[in-house]
Each structure stands twice: as C-alpha cells, then as structure tokens.
Design brief:
This protein is α+β, with helices and mostly antiparallel strands. It has helices spanning about 30-40, 75-80, 90-105, 115-125, 165-180, 190-195, 205-215; strands at about 5, 25, 45, 55, 60-65, 85-90, 130-135, 140-150, 150-160, 185-190, 200.
Length: about 230
C-alpha cells in the first residue's frame, strides 16, 4: 500500500489504505482541526524528533470496553486504602511533560516532541484533551492524558514515579468513564500492560464502526476538574 503525502487541506485518506504496519500518511500539521479530524477518522499521529509527522491507523486495534476492566486484588486494596489522591484536569501540562520525560529517562525515545506537547495543550484548552493525576503527599507521582470525543476516550500516554500510581489513575478514569456511559477507551496498539487490564484487540473495521456510533453521542464539554 502507498503512504499518502498530506497537503494543506485538512483531509485524510481512508484508514483501510494504511500499510501493514498501520502507517497511513505523512505530513500535514498538528492544528487542532486536523487532530480532531484524525481522531474522528480513527487515525492518530505518532513520530519521533527529526521525522515528518506520521499518521497511523493500525489493524488490529487495541481497545478497552469499560465493563471489561480487570483490576487485580492487590491494586484494588491500594485503591480502597486511598494511597493516592486522584484528580482530573488539574495539571495537564505537568502530566504531558512527565510522560515525555519518563520515556526519555528510560532511553525509550518519545513522540512527545515540543510541537506535539503544544498541540495537545491546545486541545486541552478547548476541553478536548484531558489529564488524570495521581498525587501523594501533595506531589504529582503518576498520571495519564488523552482525547475525548463523543463517548470514546483516546488514551495517549501515561507515566509513574511511584509504583502503581499510573495504574490507580487509569482505573479511576475507566470507572468514571463507565459511570458516564462511555463506549470504549482506544488504547491504539497492543501492550501486555493494557491487556492485563482487560483490553482486547478488534479489527480496524469493527473499531471504525464502533467509533462512528460513539461519535454520534454528545461530547462532555469543558474541563473535567468537576468529575
């Protein structure tokens, strides 16, 4: 399959035209309008510093249906004991930068280059990207962020400075999304960590059908700090 070169027009080729790795297109920009168009089309950006912007739509797709969440007994005890204080949209800039720093410290590389951070901060300002924070003794020790459209949450990245902090944030998020009747959490690509939480692979075709239905439902507006 060819990889498409994007123009200044905010449009994407059909996701099913992605190559076997899931790579669909190259170029374009990270404007809010293009990012929202991408997510609504089942596409997301993922690239490293020095590379052009790369747009992906993998097949299969890893998703977590909220009702399928699996929480270990040990983590459940940690949550019940209140070892972490969980908040929403209290420290988005700190969370996204901590996600980037965490990968850099592990020499894993990161797609969270400065222009990506700026782009998601813009989405946050418009109430379309959200963070979940885990605190201990007033210190930010873990968290995650993602994009919310319709009744789908698109998970992007997480970090932890203390064991189980990001897990506590993730479980709290999923349970909150369950209460809000969200259909699914898009986990993008498969990791054992997310599979252990109950995430499962589905075909891109099925994902796009579910996404289309979810996007017909209203998006929760504004900051989530009141959740």
């Amino acid at each position: 399959m060819p990889v498409f070169l994007l123009s200044n027009t905010i449009a994407f080729p059909p996701p099913h035209l992605a190559d076997k790795s899931g790579l669909l297109a190259v170029g374009g920009d990270l404007s809010r309008e293009r990012l929202i168009k991408a997510y609504r089309s089942g596409i997301f950006p993922w690239y490293s510093g020095g590379e052009p912007i790369l747009w992906w739509s993998p097949d299969p797709r890893l998703v977590l249906f909220p009702h399928a969440l699996h929480v270990s007994k040990r983590l459940e005890r940690i949550l019940r004991k209140g070892e972490f204080q969980i908040s929403f949209d209290r420290a988005f800039p700190e969370v996204i930068r901590a996600c980037a720093e965490s990968r850099a410290q592990k020499n894993e590389g990161t797609w969270l280059v400065p222009e990506m951070i700026e782009a998601y901060e813009t989405l946050h300002e418009f109430g379309q990207a959200h963070s979940v924070e885990a605190w201990r003794n007033g210190q930010l020790v873990g968290g995650l962020y993602g994009v919310s459209l319709g009744r789908c949450f698109f998970g992007e990245s997480m970090f932890t400075k203390v064991a189980n902090a990001s897990k506590a944030a993730f479980v709290t998020l999923v349970r909150q999304l369950t209460a809000l009747n969200f259909d699914m959490i898009d986990c993008q690509v498969t990791t054992a960590h997310l599979v252990n939480f109950g995430a499962t692979e589905i075909s891109r075709k099925k994902f796009l059908i579910l996404l289309d239905a979810s996007l017909k439902k209203p998006t929760i507006p504004g900051r989530w700090s009141g959740l």
